[in-house]
Every structure is written in structure tokens, then in C-alpha cells.
Design goal:
mainly alpha, about 80% helix, about 0% strand, elongated, binds zinc ion
């Protein structure tokens, strides 16, 4: 089982690249038992949604006319 620090690192990397099935399984398993990392994951999920929304909005606005 990975440490909380490593799990958080994986959650961060998941924003930039797809995780391997082993990594996803490790993360899922860790989250079952670790309340702290579940809270962290919620934060990352929010961050991902917010970043995507911002990018879409920004791209629309930055199209040259
Ligand atoms: Zn943890």
C-alpha cells in the first residue's frame, strides 16, 4: 500500500496523464481506508472541474476575431 504522500502525488499526476490500472487500483484501495486522502481527492476533483471550466471559457474568449 502506498503512503498518503504518494497517493496525493498520484492524484496530482492524474490531472496530467491517465493512471495505469495498477495505480488506479492502489489509489482506490487506499481511499477506502484513508479519510484524509478522500478529503484531498475531493479537493482535486473540484480543482480539475474548475480548471476545465476556466480553460473552456478562456479558449472561447481568446479566439482572435
Ligand atoms: Zn491516505
Amino acid at each position: 500500500m502506498l503512503s498518503c504522500r504518494e497517493e496525493t502525488e498520484l492524484m496530482s499526476q492524474r490531472l496530467d496523464r491517465p493512471l495505469s490500472s495498477g495505480e488506479r487500483l492502489g489509489l482506490w484501495f487506499h481511499l477506502l481506508f484513508c479519510k484524509g486522502c478522500r478529503a484531498t481527492q475531493k479537493h482535486f476533483a473540484f480543482l480539475r472541474t474548475a480548471t476545465r471550466a476556466w480553460r473552456e471559457h478562456h479558449d472561447v474568449d481568446s479566439i482572435p476575431r
